[in-house]
Task: structure prediction
Amino acid sequence: MRYQRIDLNLLIALDALLAERNVTRAAERMHMTQSAMSGVLSRLREYLDDSLLVPVGRSMQLTPRAESLIEPVRNIILQVDATLGVKPEFEPATAQRHFRIIASDYVTQVLLAEVLRRIAQLAPHLSFDVRPTYAGMAQDLDQGRVDFLITPAHLTLSDHPQAVLFDDTYHVIACQQNREMVDGITLEQYQSVGHVVYQAEQGTNPWFEQWYANQHGNTRRIEVVAHGFLLMPRFVVGTGRIATIQTRLAKQFVQAMPLRLLEPPLETPRLTEVLQWHRYRDDDPGVQWVRDQVVSLAHVMPAI
Result:
């Protein structure tokens, strides 16, 4: 299909070039040879009368015109996909779809694993790519590269629809063999013993860590930094360390490991987890069905 002398199929290639900023990586993404992608880039340069990608040192950078095209081109592709690429009906028992979800290992443990177990029974031909949270996850949802994002409420995107899933609080976990905390933990103990804390691989901190730093500064002694919520209790068992973890997750840890659940000796924030999907896919029957499964199971979780 052509519009004003441009092959609309080239928009897909242009989107890949704008995203990758590299001919070789764009070619790999499009399952093309490098020479074929170079030919596509030449055609795009001729049509747009702009270099699009220019060498700067050892890398390639987008021209100002190319930068201005990133969002419009992605929106065109998303709108075409939402209009033509989705079947008007969705039959769970027979549908064959692949969905991409971003969620922390905490959310996966307390909710998403059970959701996917239920879906496996109702829609056995669906498949899922569950990705851990990362710095660019909001951008990937905005650009339609993932179908769902589950994130704390303060990190949601205002341009896309959302549904509140569940609330959570925080508790402290300590080893059962730690005799100093049999009757609870004082603020003095909390600030003097070693802590296990979570930090994303990109160096960003979750909601509680940000809140504590803002409210109390550097008043804890951090002994271990774990790059996953599910790793944290492993560094508490058999030690004098403690960790402050979401209550729903902490209760699961206490049931499975020799740990003790303690009330925090200070007020802690409340956490709200939210499901988001792209606005162009709001009427997609498949997206609607999957999000209904997530929301319905979240809403029957026990209250905290």
Summary: The radius of gyration is 24 Å. The chain has a mean pLDDT of 90. The chain has three domains: 2-84, 98-167+271-298, 170-262.
